[in-house]
Amino acid sequence: MYRLLLILLLVFPFVVMSQNGLERVSKSEQQAMIAQINEAASSVKTMQCDFEQTKFMSLLDDKMVSKGVMRFKQEQNLRWEYTAPYRYIFIVAGAKVMIKSSQSTDEIDVRSSRLFQEIVGIMVNSVTGKCLSVGSDFNTTMYTAGKSGEWVAKLVPRKKELRQMFSVITLYFDPEAKMITQVEMEENSGDMTQILLKNVITNVGLDDSVFTID
Predict the structure, then answer these.
(1) Facing residues of 77 across strands?
(2) For residue 133, which of 121, 146, 145, 143 has the smallest C-alpha distance?
(3) Selected residue with higher pLDDT from 165 and 201
(4) Which are the contacts of 146, defined by CB distance < 8 A and separation ≥ 6?
(5) d(CA 66, CA 52)
(6) CA-CA distance, 119 to 162, in Å (whole number)?
(7) For 52, 60, 176, 207, which has the most beta carbons within 10 A of its beta carbon?
């Protein structure tokens, strides 16, 4: 179980966001921004994009860059596939998580662990920004970012299980499309990773077989 949790921490993004250039919005503006993001998210039935991940290890003066393809389908189907520098597949399909590497294939029922459920929920809901509406899980503060004008949501976990692992989750949104462009998180251990979503296409045909492992 803990090995799988560690894999999740490698798969999903973690980075510290600089406070420079961020302007906090008013309460009414925040409510309006979240409403618009939720409205856009509700129209997304499927999503496909490329991603680039840069991971910074707190104990090493180095970084690791990897690339891949992400596919998402309502309600809870996510395929996170690394293509370089190695091949690695992580799939969420309902209550099941499947992980495939060159050495092995693992499958787990997420209902067997409350913490695992929380992490998987963050992964799936962050793809479209739906986690902004999970008010019981996070304290959310919205900002606008400097010259880029991006909308930035900083989410501080409320639940003890999540606070033990993460100090903050940060989501970036295109203010016009209301779509997520970048997901960042800061892990309490000090490790940081940044993942950029590129070439995003929504509502494309995705067969259910995409969310299975051959």
Answers:
(1) 73, 93
(2) 121
(3) 201
(4) 20, 21, 22, 23
(5) 6
(6) 8
(7) 52
